[in-house]
Every structure is written in C-alpha cells, then in structure tokens.
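Researcher: First entry.
Model:
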Amino acid sequence: MPPDFLASIGLILRDVCLPIILVIALGRGFDRRFRLDLETLVKLNIYLFVPAFIFARVTQSEVGTETGLRIVGFTLLMIGSMAIMSLLVGRLRHYRVEQKKSLLLTTMFYNCGNFGIPLMTLAFPSEGPGIQVFVLMTMNVATFSIGLLLATAQSCPQRGLRWQFGPVLKQPSLYAIALAWLCQSADVPVQDWVMVWKPIEFLADALVGVALVTLGVQLSKTKPSRCSGPLTWALSIRLVGGPLLALFWVQVFGFPPIIAAILILGAAAPTAVNTALLAHEFKADSDAAAASVFYSTLLSFIPVGLILLVIRLG
C-alpha cells in the first residue's frame, strides 16, 4: 500500500476515532464501577448541554438561513428514504408488526447528538458543528413526532394528538434554534453580554465530553441480543444504506463539497438511543432496538473511517 494511504488511515484512527472510543470507554468503565444514573445524564444532555450548544453554534455560524433550511430538508428526506428502505425489507422478509416497527425506528433516526457532535468537532472543527446542529435539531423533533407516532400507532391508538405531540413541544432544542435564529436576524449582540454568553459557552464546550460519557454509560447498561435476522438488516441499512442515500441526496441538493462531506459522514452515525427507549415503551421489539444501538455504535467506526479516508484522499 502507498505510504500516504497508510498515513491517512493512521491519522484518522489517531485523531478522530480513538479519542471518541477512549471517552466512550471511560463512560462505560465509570458506570461499571460506580453505577451512574443514566436518566440524570440523559436529562443533562437534552435539557442543558445540547440547547446551549445549539444556541452558541447557530449564533456563531456563518451558515445562512437558506442553507440551514436545505439541511433540514435533506435530513427529512434521509429519514423518509430510510423508512422506505426498511418497509421494503420488512415486507420482503415477512417480519412481524413489532419487528417492522423496530426496524423502522432503528434505521430512520441516527445518533447525531452524543455521537455526531463529537465526531464533527474532531473531523471538521471549523464547519462541522455549525452544520450538524441543523441535523441534530431536525432529528430530535422528528424522533419525538414521527418516531413517537410510529411507536404508538398500534400500541396506544386511543391517545390524542395532544399526548402524542406533547414531547415535541418539550424539546428545548427547538426553542434554542428559534431563539438563535431570531438573535441572528435582529443582529442582537449576544456575545457582548458576557454575563449571559459565558455560561452558555461553558455549557456548549462541555457537550462533547458529557455526550460521549453518556453514550458509554448507555452502552454499559445495554444487554445486546445475538446479531442475526432483523438486527443484521437494521445494521446494514443504518451503516451502509445511510451514507449511500446521503451521497445521492447531497447531489440532488447541490451542496458545496464541504457541507456534502459533513452530511455524508453524519449519515454513518449509529442508531439513536432514543429509538430503543421508544421501542421499549410502546411494545416494539425492544431487545432488537437495544442491540441495534449497541452493535451499530461499535461498528460505526468502520464506515466513518472509510468515509473520512475517501474525503481526505479525494
């Protein structure tokens, strides 16, 4: 192999993959030793660190509103495309209803927060986080709207729309990005208000470490089943189908090369942890969903490494 090729692989492993793996491993090790409270960590991420990160990065971002809306459209089309692919597989394989629901949940929604934000911070420190916040916001809202409706479609048909969409309105990320856009549009000098801006900046900077530790704790508490049957299809669709669909859609949208690279890399992220929680709560195949989170997180470094290699050699 050419020396440049081997050097590129070594740099990707050293500078991008290994830092993420080490912090995840620390989270897993700390949970095994001290039995950390996962619910508290998840709440800190969702209600404190993620909104602060979104607000800080959007107000600092040079990504215009038009580009941001196009990224939102791209993310929604990715979710829809993954759903179609999963429905076809479920029909062809004659899966049971709960298996089909689990397959949809574990392929449509990917971990662009705990995994995606640290990945972009390391791989594309200048542009990555600013682009990823739009994906993160869209994915959070879609998970607790489309995902919730999907999970409750047959298990809780008597529930009203207010109950089903309530979790969406409770997502602080939605208000963080709206407030950030408002401040940008009105040229509000938020960064000059040191008493307000500094705490936001402290929280935003803490997200990467806390998110990876949380992911490690989540993996520590996951009891995966054997990797076979529907689970194999879920992993294939998520980790192989995701980047391939992203490659198609970035060309349709005509994104600049740097944004296209960030979006394709983000599409190789593992299954979102929230999908396993939804599957457990609403009688989908929760064992398969939890296993998909576990195995896709471990295996995601293969497509992530390959995509980064292609980007850097290209």
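Researcher: Second entry.
Model:
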Amino acid sequence: MRAIERGDYDPILLQDFLQESGDLGQLAKMVDTMASTISQRNVQLNLLNKVIPIGVSLSAEKDFNRLLESLVVEAQAFTNADAGSLYLVEEDKLRFVILRNTSLNMHMGGTSGSPIAFKPIRMYNEDGSENRSNVVSHAALTHQRIMIADAYEAEGFDFSGTKSFDEQTRYRSKSFLTIPLENKDGKVMGVLQLINAKDPKTGEIVAFEADLVLEALILLATAALDGYIREAALRSEIAKLRIEVDQSRRAKQVDEITETQFFRDLTTRAKEMRSKGKK
C-alpha cells in the first residue's frame, strides 16, 4: 500500500501472491487492480494538470527561440534529465539549436544569447550513404526512438564526440533518450535528445523509461513546432508574393508612363538638346 501511495508500485511486488488461488490470491489481485486504476488516474491527472496547459502555452508562443527552449526545458522536467539538446533538420544536416546542461550550468541557443559552439551533424556520409553511426542522425533517418542506458557501453554507435566533451568538461554522459520529432505528414523536423535521467530520490543517473505523459508532451510540442514552421513559411510566401506583385505593379506603371505622348515628346526634346550640345 505504501508503494501505491508513493506512486512507485510495481506488479512484481505481488507476483508470488497473484498466482495463489485462495483468499490471499484474490486479495493480491484486488490490490493489483486498484493500483493499476490509481496509476491510470494519476496519468490522466498529469495530462490535465501539466501537459495540456504546457501544450496550450507552446501553441500560443510567438517567439521561435523561446518555443524551442521551452520544448527542451519541459521535456527535461518531465524526465528529470540533467541535460537536453534540440536539433532541427536543415537540408542534409541536423543543426544544434538548443543545448542545456544543469550540472555544468551550460545554456546555449534559444534565449540564452550564447551561440551553439558545435558543428551540425551530417545525416549522410561523403559517399552518400546514411550516417547511422551517430545516434541523433540514426533517429532522424529511421524515425525511431532510441534509449541507451550507458553510452560508454553501447554498441553500434559512435560516441567519440560525447566522450571528448566529457573529457573536456569532466562530465559523465550516461543514459540517453533520443526522439525524432515528426510533423503531421510524417516528415522529421528535428531531434530531441535528453541525457542523464536522475532518480528523484537518490540523484543517481538511471536509464530513461517509457512514459505516457512524456509521449503526450512530445506530441503537443511537435504540433506546436510544426504549426509555427508552417505559419512562418506561409508568412514568407505571402511576403514574397507581395514583393512580386509590387514589382509587377511598378513595371506596369513605368510602361504606362513611357507610352504617354508627353513622355515621348520629352524624350524627343532631350535627344535634340543632346544633339545640339555635341555641335
């Protein structure tokens, strides 16, 4: 019951009793059902009280840098992650736009005023093949979420850049959660990467876990990001159209002026005066 109250109930606690056929087994099943119901209710309450208001505020945000930063900050808060980064897809590269590390007091991009000091990540190698050795580009190319318990023990990915960063800053990057951000058309707009989830009680670095509340946050944040990008693109197209219309209008006005008899007479007189001047 104390585990239920704390919110860290796990069915494995009653595994032995659930297999019993007598009164003890029935009681264990009732407790398990009750715990599942409470857990679902807590998830719903978190959605109502936390995620939805955040989603609304993100959708209303008109400052692009603040929107990007808020996405990382909220994701860090929900997962209790020590660090977080956000990349946006630009042609065939993933460009750093936000980098935050609480332990190192490092804030780059967004509203920090500090530019990102790291180069973009290539999605394709020089020979044209996909760059799947980097966990961020791998997530973007495959549209797959990647969880890694310990980067120093992970196989199949190149974490040399991470290890170099750790060596320079005396940090220890351990657990990773890398999430591709897709728009409503299924196109990857960017990648969110969270680093070093912390146990709220001990502060110990632990592996990231699947979380329905985080899922909802990512969906709402991605929708907000997609909406902003689409709106910005539309504004750009409208501005471009206005410029083209203005240029066309000016060209038409020039044609109308040059075709008047007055302008023709003026041109003729100017030629005559230039001709007399030469004599």
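Model: Note on the second entry: Residues 233-278 form one domain.
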